[in-house]
Design a protein that fits this description.
Layout: E1 7-9, H1 18-34, E2 40-42, H2 56-80, H3 91-103, E3 108-115, H4 118-145, E4 150-153, E5 158-164, H5 170-185, E6 201-207, H6 208-211, H7 215-228, E7 234-237
Parallel strand pairs: 1-2, 6-7
Antiparallel strand pairs: 3-5, 3-6, 4-5
Length: 240
């Protein structure tokens, strides 16, 4: 794939409003795209939104190209947030979701899920099998979380699940976490170097009323406690 650039240029007088300058340069850039791409166009008054009397067809084509490009930009922006292997939103979207809930004053719980010994699984069964296993675990988490939980890909072999407590309770989030190890084990993803004979997960839970803004870190710490206690287990943190 050959990459090229289209450039819009505007020459401004001292004191010009920044938003006007950017708008004119933006219009010139789209004119460069409409002119065949890989070129530059300098803004002139005939590129404004008012159709030029001498060539309305040119401006109409430019405006149509502008709309198409903006639509494609929105599509690419959405796709950039998705993890290709699992179809889940990435950790950046998760952090935005957490900030939005915190700002709104909504209490929630975080379930932090980590696939045990996953690096060894990749080495033994090849990375392609690892990708398939990762996708299978993601699907299982989504199916067993329900509409009140939001599942995100978080790091290499980790997932986060947000459980808002608008209707649910602390215990419901912990019950969900308790079900996940058996849910993943039921997938029967063979891993013969594991003491369990198949791929497993360790799960941690934390709640905002204890962890406040560090709820993700607290859930991660709980998950590490579950690993230290023997893996394929769940640990909830309700203290400070």
């Amino acid at each position: 794939m050959a990459i090229s650039v289209s450039v819009g240029v505007t020459v401004e007088a001292p004191g010009a409003a920044p938003e006007g300058s950017v708008a004119r340069a933006d219009t010139a850039m789209y004119a460069a795209k409409a002119a065949g791409r890989a070129t530059f166009v300098t803004w002139t008054p005939r590129l404004t939104d008012d159709p030029p009397a001498d060539d309305p067809t040119e401006l109409a084509a430019l405006q149509a190209a502008n709309r198409d490009l903006r639509t494609r930009y929105q599509q690419l922006r959405h796709e950039a947030q998705l993890d290709a292997r699992t179809g889940l939103l990435r950790d950046h979207a998760y952090e935005n979701h957490v900030r939005a809930l915190t700002t709104a004053g909504v209490d929630f719980s975080v379930v932090f899920v980590d696939i045990d010994l996953f690096h060894g699984y990749n080495e033994r069964y090849t990375h392609i099998a690892g990708h398939q296993a990762l996708a299978a675990v993601a699907t299982a988490l989504q199916e067993h979380t329900g509409i009140q939980g939001s599942v995100f890909r978080y790091g290499g072999e980790e997932f986060t699940i947000i459980v808002p407590r608008t209707e649910s309770t602390l215990q419901e989030a912990e019950d969900l976490a308790d079900r996940l190890p058996s849910t993943v084990a039921a997938l029967d993803l063979v891993y013969d170097t594991s003491p369990f004979g198949h791929l497993t997960v360790s799960v941690g839970v934390a709640h905002t009323e204890q962890a406040h803004d560090d709820v993700t870190a607290w859930a991660n710490m709980a998950m590490l406690d579950a690993k230290r206690s023997g893996r394929n287990r769940t640990q909830a943190r309700r203290d400070h």
